[in-house]
Amino acid sequence: MDKIYSFRHYEETLYTFWEDNGYFTAKIDPSKKPFCIILPPPNANADLHLGHAMYVYEDVMIRYNKLMGNETLWLVGADHAGIETQFVYEKYLKKQGKSRFDFDRKTLFNNIWEFVMENRGNMENQLRKLGFALDWSKKKFTMDEDIVKTVYLTFKHLYDDGLVYRANRLVNYCTSCGTSFSDLEVVDKEVVGNLYYIQFPIQEGGSVTIATTRPETYLGDVAVMVNPKDKRYQKIIGKTVLLPLINREIPVIADEYVDPKFGTGAVKVTPAHDENDFQVAQKHGLWKDPVIDFNGHMQNTGLDDIDRVYVVKARKLIITKLEEYGFLEKITPHDMVLHTCYRCGTTLEPLPKEQWFINVKPLKKKAIQLVKKDEIRIHPKRFKKQLIAILENFIDWNVSRQIVWGIQIPAYRCEKTNDWFVSVEQPTSCQICGKCKFIQDKDTFDTWFSSAQWPYATLQSCKNPKSEIRNPKSDDKPTPFFDYFYPTSVMETGYDILRAWVSRMIMIGYFETKTVPFQHVFLHGMVRDKKGQKMSKSKGNVINPLDMIKQYGADAVRAALIFGTKEGGDVVLSEDKILAMRNFCNKIWNIGRFIEINQSQSSSHKSQVSIQKTSPKFQNIKNIEKLRKEFAGIEKKYHTHFKNFEFAKAFDLMYEFVWHRFADYYIEELKDSVQSGSIEACQEIFTVFRACLQMLHPYTPFVTEAVWKAFHDKTTSIMQSRFEHTNKTIRS
RNA sequence: GGACCCGUAGCUCAGCGGUAGAGCGUUCGGUUCACAUCCGAAAGGCCAGAGGUUCGAGACCUCUCGGGUCCACCA
Q: Which ipTM was obtained for this model?
């Protein structure tokens, strides 16, 4: 063994060794306990960042379970990441002086497909560099044919159960990007805007002043609304207001919703352009078609010189006009939040658009039950409350996206009746009228809709290598891996996507499979820099995991993400810490080297050994026994931590023990007798060290395997070994 | 407005009812003898503040102050 552990000589070779010899490949073994984790699929098109490196927790669990003798599957896949990827591709097009409008739908889709496929390998190799024990033989992509089919089937099932509906709802629409966004994708921007006070004349005499930040939308108003308890306005409720400049008549209505303290206490109601107004108007049975179109231009306002004018410009024109005619009372500055497009920064326009929605009420009810009853257990515990709150507040899910890069919604509109039907297979004839040419919805699914099905969609599509004969009937195909590994054991992901992903997997997963998609959820924290700031390119504090791996080795980077952290807490990562962990890896290596040197020595001095044996040093025997006892305690604690999902604690424990107790104390104390060939001392040190290698292996797989091979047949792996003391120390 | 997390050594963080800890940094002393990517030693803390529970509180409870995150609302 070399003086220093040089990870560069080992990492790639060892990973290839593992992969080629099938150590990552899951089989179906009914005699073993299955343990399965589905890797949250990274964006196929993007490089990994430090957040992805946090999936090391999954590797820790997988490798631990392998050493426990369980049959493990860590399933790897890639996400098409709809909006994100299309955005990246469009930037790429822009560099070439083109845009998405230069292509038809099909060509654009195919181009993005090729673009993604070219880049996909990067991400996969980066996962390998991290040492992840992923089963590459079963890798999946969210746009694989069989996955798409599953997604279609789920949608059909939801549709058949009456949980899918089409509704004219307000969506956050970006008039520049030409697409709508989910609430989750909206970026809030705090600005100082204006509050405009406008006088509306009342037909019966007098006037009422309303305050608004969006004066141009008054042309789409359906009512003026006041609080029924507001004494100032009691007498105008039920009267008729004449909208300035156009003289359209609208009623004054009353609703608790109005806050009397805000503005003047009187509010204009514009159902087509404001989410709250939309809801209130619906309650009162009021509606008026939009006065802003999907390109951001005014329409149907009743004012010829305003129609077809861009909305920002229209606002100025209208204000000038209102002022000119004496309707504008005053303008005051006002702190407000703009909903903006995360892609281009344009202020999003709430616009009514027909979309597909999923009624989540029954789904979330069941999901809440599952979480509350611990059918799905959340680690760390504090996230349980948070998840329940998230589920309780879940509103109906808009799954339509107006982009090309995604799974096209399998919904078809009859040209004759305008009714819709949903079909998993490409229909040959209209299922409504039977003869028309029907048109498929142009929209694609929200990426999270396919992600929500990932656990069962992937497992169902895993082929059993032994029984390739498959039933052609799609609903009745054999799904041995699904049967064996589902529900999966643990879903491990960042706490930031509890809402977007975890909650939806539970809802959809249960709906489709009638069981939980995973038994445990383990959430990791965010990676931050030395100062506790989020890493971002603009701050220039981004640590590239691959650079660090190149410099310090994968084991060091992995260990640095875990060492000294609290479960679910954010991780502060610095180069210093990675360096410290590299030193620890070297320490592991050198303990092995010490043992190796002394083993060969003691075997060459066999004659001396027996002499040594007849003259026992009581001190050393005492130390050997002390070590044995102390290590038994460490083993017990280690396995308890794993049982409690306290992976960082288990690692901290090993770090402290291996370095500061085992190496610094015991080896130093027993050094003399080891070097003079004491068999007892050598054996005990080797036994403990062997077990330590196994216990460290989930965290630092490379160095432990490299050392392991130094003591064993080179064709074997530490991954074949099993914890020896497990029966004594833990109960399953 | 609702919820959650965090204030512990110079810095970044562990500690979850019983003698204040780690990594990095600092100071001093050590390399033929596994490792200088090392070893030994040292300095450095009213554990944010105030009450309370307890024989005993960084730890549990209440409040205050300070930092962060998520959600809701914003005419």
A: 0.90
